[in-house]
Amino acid sequence: MRRVAIIGVGQTKFRTRRDDATHEELTFEGVSRTLEDAGLSISQIDSFIYGTMDPFDGVNSPDKWCVGGAGAVGKPFIKISTGGTTGLTAGIAAYHQVASGAFDISMAVCTQRVGVGDDAQSILNTCVCPIYERDAGAGAISIGAHQASRHMFKYGSTDYQRALISVDAHKNALNNPNAHIQVDVNPEDVLNSRMIEWPLRLLECCPRSDGACAVIFASEEAAKKLCPHPAWVWGEASILDSYWWGERPDLADWDVLSLAGRRLFKMAGISNPLKEIDVAELYAPFTSQILLELEALGFCGHGEAGPLIEKGVFKMDGEMAVTPSGGVLCTNPIGATGLVRLTEAVLQVTGKAGQHQVPGAEVALAHAWGGTMQLHALMIVGKHKR
Amino acid sequence: MAEKKEEFIKVKANWNIPFTHSAGKCASHFFQEMREKKRILGIRCPKCQRVMLPPRSFCERCFVATTDWVPVKDEGVVESVSINYMEYTGMPKPPYAIAFIRLDGSDSNLMHFVGGVDLSDWKKAKDLVKIGTRVKAVWKEEREGRMTDIMYFKPVSAK
After folding, report:
1. Chain B residues close to A138, C-beta within 8 Å
2. Crossing angle for the helix pair A86-99 and A334-349, nearest 10 degrees?
3. What is the C-alpha separation between A245 and A128, in angstroms, rounded?
4. What domains are defined for chain A?
5. Which of the pair, B16 or A150, is modelled with greater confidence?
6. pLDDT digits (tens, 9 = 90+) for A236-256
7. Cβ-based neighbours of A57, under 8 Å, separated by 6 or more
8. Helices (H), chain B
9. Which of A59, A245, B24, B59 is spaced 20 to 30 A from A209 at the CA atom?
10. Which of A46-55, A122-131, A248-257 has the lowest mean pLDDT?
11. Which residues does chain B have within 8 Å of residue A247's beta carbon, measured at their own beta carbons?
12. Alpha-carbon distance A199 to nearest alpha carbon in chain B (angstroms)
C-alpha cells in the first residue's frame, strides 16, 4: 500500500434548511470550497467516492442527481451508503483507491439534506427490521438513550456528566463558523431542557442539518507536487456488528469499536492513545455516546469517562481535545457527518482550524458510527509522515 | 428602503408507498405460535447452543442453519430501557417505554414495550421500568400473528 496524503478539505455552512440551494448546488458549493483549499481544478481529480444516506433527502439515490455538482461526469464513481458512517467510509474508500495505486487523486464527496423531511426519526425507524422490531417505535435517539440508561446502571455515570458533555460541545461550536447550533448553554440549561427520550434531554440530542463536505486524497508523489503541507493518513479501520440490538452483550460497552480501535492503533503505531493523540473528532449525536466511545477506544478505562469529563480532561485545553468543532451534537448532516469529522481532524493537524484550533495539534482521530449501533469507521491523520 | 427578503420557491413531495414484507418460514412459525397458543419460541444454534430470540433460520455467529425450536417464558428481566416522550410521524403515541428484555430461557434480548404503568411523568416513570425489573407479557385478545400481539410487557410487581 502506498502512503497517502490529504491535500484539500472543505465544507459548507450547516443549517436546518439550506433553501438557497438544491441538492446538486449544495454539492457544488462543498466541492468548490475543497478545490479552493487544495488549489486544484476539478479536472485534476481522477476518481470520486460519493456518500449519502438515501431516504433523508426524499430522493432515491440522490447521488445520481449530484454527479454534476460533484464534477464527476465522465469519471470513475462509486456510491457509499453505510448509515452514519457513510462520510468516513467514503473517506476510507477514497484512501484505498489511492493507497492501492488505482488512482493518484481521489475525492470523497458527501451531501445530505436532513432538513428536507418533516421527521427524521420516522425515516430512521424504517431502518429497523419490519418483521420483528419496527413496531417497537425505536429511532436513532433510542440508541443513545439505551446506551445512556445502561451506562448509568452499569458504571454510575450521571445526568450531570452528560450535561457537561453538552456544555463543552456547544461552547466549542461557538468557535466554529460552519457549526449548525450556535448557542451557549450551562449544565442547568441542559438538565432543564425538555425530556426527549429518557434519559436524554433536548440539549443532549443533535439537530437535523443540511450541508456538504469534500476531501481530496493524493499519493505521496502527487502530494509532493501539489501541496506543501498536507495531512498524512496514519491508519484507518472499519468494522461491522450484528444488525440485532438484542445480540449485543451489553449496551454500556461498545465492543466492536474497541476491536476496530485496536486495529486502527496497530496500523497507526499508537500505543498510548490519550498521550499520543491530540484531538479526537468523535461521532456522538447523543451525549451518552462520548462516554462509550472514549472508553471503547481506550482513552480511559470502562466507567472512567464521566469522572474525567468532570475534571476537564477532554476540554479544548485538556489532555486531549474532544470534538473541538462542536461535534455531531451541534451539526448532523447524517451522510456527510463522518467526512466532516475527518475534515475537522485534517484542519487541526494542518493548523487551519481558526478559532477552534487546538494549539500544536499534530495527531488527530476521526470516528463515525452508523446503522443500528452497528458500523464504525476510524481514521488517524498526522501533521508529519509516519 | 428595507431590502426585500429573497424568496425561495418550495416544491412539496410525499412518499406514501405500501409495502408487503414476507416474514419467511422461521418468523411465520414464531408468529403462528404467538397467535394461536400465546407461546413464545426461541431457536437454538446447533453449534454454539445459544437460544436466539427473536428466532432466525440461521446463527450469524456460527454461520449454520438453526432447526431446534425452544419454548421460552413470556416473562423476563429488563436489560436496558428508554422512555420516549416525542411524537413522530407514523410511530406509536408517546409516552412509551422501549426495553430490551431477556426472557427466561433465552440468550438474547427482545425489543418490546414495557407498559401497564403510568409513564406520563418521567421522574416517576424511570423508577417503574428500571433495569432489572421483572416483566410479563400482556397479550391481546384478538391476535394477528405480529409482534404487537403482545401489547407490552408489564412489571410483575405492578397492580
Report:
1. 98, 111
2. 60
3. 10
4. 4-118+208-226 (3.40.47.10)
5. A150
6. 999 999 999 889 989 999 999
7. A23, A112, A113, A116, A117
8. 24-37, 122-125
9. A245
10. A122-131
11. 60, 108-109
12. 7
Do the Cβ atoms of A195 and B85 come within 8 Å?
A: yes
pLDDT band at residue B3 under the 50/70/90 scheme: low
Separation CA A366–CA A379 (nearest Å)? 5
d(CA B126, CA B146): 28
CB pairs under 8 A between A and B: 118
Dig out the grid coordinates for A284 from the structure: 456522538
pLDDT at A124: 84
B56 burial via Cβ count (<10 Å: 0-12, 13-18, 19+):
buried
Which residue from A292, A314, A266 is spatially nearest to A369, judged by alpha carbons?
A292
B5 touches chain A (CB under 8 A): no
Chain A within 8 Å of B9 (Cβ-Cβ)?
no
Residues A103, A47: contact at Cβ < 8 Å? Answer: yes
Contact at 8 Å (CB) between B83 and B119? yes
Note if the bond before B54 is cis, omega within 30 degrees. Answer: yes
Q: CB distance from B29 to chain A under 8 Å?
A: no
Our measurement of the distance from residue A364's CA atom to the centroid of its chain's CA atoms, rounded to an integer in Å, reads 13
d(CA B29, CA B145): 9
Give the type of residue at B19: F
Query: Hunting for cell 474497541 — which residue is that?
Result: A258
Average pLDDT, chain A: 96
Contacts of A136 in chain B (CB under 8 A): 98, 111-113, 147
Residues A203-225, mean pLDDT to the nearest whole number:
97
Place of cell 488505482: A102
**CB-CB contact of A56 with A113 (8 Å):** yes
Cell of A285: 449525536
Helices (DSSP H) in chain A: which residue ranges?
23-38, 62-70, 86-99, 120-125, 140-155, 159-173, 187-192, 220-226, 255-268, 273-276, 287-296, 305-310, 327-330, 334-349
Residues 6 or more apart whose CB falls under 8 angstroms from that of A204 comprise A144, A162, A163, A165, A166, A190, A193, A196, A286, A287, A288, A329
Grid coordinates standing for A333? 448532516
**In this structure, what C-alpha cell is assigned to residue B144?**
394477528
Residues B127-148: pLDDT tens digits?
A: 999 999 999 999 999 999 999 9
pLDDT of residue A65: 92
